[in-house]
Design brief:
The structure holds 2 protein chains of 2 kinds. By secondary structure, chain A is mostly helical. Chain A has a domain of about 55 residues. In chain A, about 65% of the residues lie in helices and about 0% in strands. Classes of the chains: A mainly alpha, B mainly beta. Chain A: Component of the oligosaccharyltransferase (OST) complex.
């Protein structure tokens, strides 16, 4: 039996969804980002200044944000 | 006067409590309510009707093949099929097709009831094209009757044969006059110790009624049976297999775009509706027998065929991980073989949960237009067993990513309730959009039915999680800087 949503599904047969980072590389990507964030965060901790806050803290926060998402996925909690 | 009506109300309320029983399969159907004077208009006639009752599985499956004729002067499209109210709540998977053109699909079916406490309710079948006067059409009406088999005797010894009793009507209940009809009963084997014999005068061919041939009984032929006529009969037959029934199945499917994963989890509340044990369970006898693997009415194991690509399965119950399971990944299917902690004999219960992961790419597609996604998942997976499994109620949740909107779904499984809500779990700020669907009285034949869900998921919503963590981390760095720059030294602050 044909239904409109089934037609929609069939029409999209050429474009299955793949995430930007596959399941096998989630751990590597997450680990590298978290390590990067740790290093930058440590450097910021050693010389705290208003200039270093966006210069080191900004990239460290972004790396931690994405790194945490990938690391949580890599350990099996698919968020 | 007021006190009398108040008292009557109290009695009615109390009696409804007293008669209330735990029935998870109580229908939620929003019924079309008709006046109590309603009778289906006599616009059809059943020319020839054959009802097949198949007792091979742990639930009876009935198929009515009927040639209907329009005896009215106008085209008609509404065909009614009556059932007792107590029976209609047990009927599942009611589907009507055109026997000669099955590819036309399933006809529209509704339950209609009366406003009064009537004992009869109807299935209203709407024919896709009205039937012209004097024209005929062959309908194939199929349904299952759940929780209707009763073990007789109700308690047997551990290695005895189990016998089940099924009571039904030799006349198919119909809202119209039926010219010719038969009821055929197919048993799993020819061991049928008891069945109701009807007087041969009822039978049009004046033969002994029913006729038994091997594992088949035939009631009829009956001529010109009036509308609404019933003729209750019972059969008792051997069925030394578990009568597995899931009073409740909760099934969750969680979509993760970041992880590229579809996580499935199923929680079962199983009961074996077969005969109970007469004596205590004897482990020694059970172990001695298990080498010979004789037929038994206890549920020993369940096989769950999962779709290929399923990984990381788990099987737990109230105590914790159940280690008696095997997982055989394969190209065609990934078979998950479960063994409950104990053999589930009649009247015993077992509840457990199983779950697994799969790659999202085989279930989710991105539409070319906009940021819309289409998800296609099986509505029901669950165990595959020769004797079949019935489900009183299935609660299915499709947990979509946080921020998904405009959720639409389509499935051929009859749904009694649907809603969209928010489900809060790990790392959520708003909560994930969740589509909840409820179906009642399903059987394992619905395993291959699909559910298609489409939803809009803007890329901005996708970045919610990392952005929230990023902001939190940045706030931490900023507060470290602020706290670090507070001068806490004792004495006068040094200036220049």
């Amino acid at each position: 039996m044909s239904s409109p949503l089934l037609d929609v599904w069939e029409a999209a047969s050429g474009s299955p969804y793949y995430p930007a980072v596959g399941k096998n590389t989630q751990f590597t990507v997450g680990f590298v980002l978290l390590l990067f964030s740790l290093v930058l965060g440590a450097v910021f901790g050693l010389n705290r200044s208003f200039v270093n806050l966006p210069l080191l803290g900004g990239p460290a926060a972004v790396a931690f944000g994405f790194g945490a998402v990938y690391m949580i996925c890599a350990v099996g909690v698919y968020v | 006067m007021r006190s009398i009506s108040f008292l009557a109300g109290c009695i009615a309320a109390a009696s409804s409590f007293a008669s209330a029983e735990l029935n998870q399969s109580k229908p939620l159907l929003s019924k079309q309510v008709l006046p109590s004077t309603f009778t289906p208009p006599q616009v059809f006639k059943n020319n020839n009707l054959v009802k097949n009752i198949n007792l091979d599985k742990a639930y009876p499956r009935e198929t009515i093949n009927v040639i209907i004729e329009n005896i009215d002067s106008k085209p008609q499209s509404e065909y009614y099929l009556p059932f007792e109210t107590s029976l209609i709540s047990k009927i599942g998977g009611f589907e009507v097709r055109d026997k000669k053109a099955a590819e036309k699909g399933i006809f529209k079916v509704e339950v209609v009831g009366f406003d009064a406490e009537s004992s009869t309710e109807f299935y209203k079948v709407t024919l896709p094209e009205p039937l012209a006067p004097n024209a005929q059409q062959t309908l194939s009406i199929a349904y299952s009757v759940l929780s209707s088999l009763h073990p007789v005797p109700a308690q047997i010894a551990q290695s005895d044969k189990q016998y089940l009793q099924y009571t039904f009507s030799a006349y198919t209940s119909s809202a119209y006059v039926t010219e010719k009809q038969r009821t055929k009963v197919k048993f799993p084997n020819s061991d049928v110790p008891d069945y109701t014999s009807l007087p041969s005068e009822l039978n049009d061919e004046q033969k002994a009624d029913p006729q038994k041939q091997g594992a088949t009984l035939t009631y009829g032929l009956y001529n010109n049976v009036p509308a609404g006529a019933l003729q209750p009969v019972s059969v008792r037959y051997e069925f030394t297999k578990p009568v597995t029934h899931a009073t409740l199945l909760e099934r969750d499917m969680e979509v993760s775009h970041w992880g590229g994963n579809l996580a499935s989890e199923e929680r079962y509340w199983l009961v074996n509706q077969g005969a109970g044990l007469k004596n205590h369970f004897s482990r020694v006898e059970w172990q001695k027998q298990s080498y010979m693997n004789p037929p038994t009415f206890a549920l020993k194991g369940l096989n769950l065929p999962l779709h290929p690509g399923a990984v990381d399965p788990y099987f737990t119950d109230d105590i914790g991980n159940v280690s008696t399971s095997k997982f055989r990944p394969g190209k065609r299917e990934a078979l998950l073989e479960l063994k409950p902690r104990y053999p589930v004999f009649g009247t015993w219960k077992y509840s457990f949960r199983v779950g697994w992961n799969a790659d999202l790419s085989s279930y989710l597609r991105k539409l070319s237009a906009g940021e819309t996604y289409a998800l296609k998942v099986p509505f029901l997976e669950g165990p595959r067993a020769g004797e079949g499994i019935s489900y009183g109620r299935v609660n299915l949740r499709v947990i979509l990513p946080e921020g998904a909107t405009n959720v639409k779904f389509s499935t051929t499984v009859p749904i009694v309730e649907n809603s969209t809500s928010l489900h809060k779990t790990f790392m959520d700020t708003l909560g994930r959009t969740t589509l909840s669907l409820t179906a009642i009285n399903l059987v394992d034949e619905f395993r291959d039915r699909d559910l298609i869900v489409t939803y809009d998921y803007p890329w901005t919503a996708g970045y919610r999680k990392p952005v929230v963590i990023t902001l939190g981390m940045f706030a931490l760095f900023a507060s470290i800087w602020v706290l670090g720059s507070i001068d806490t030294s004792i004495g006068k602050s040094k200036k220049a």
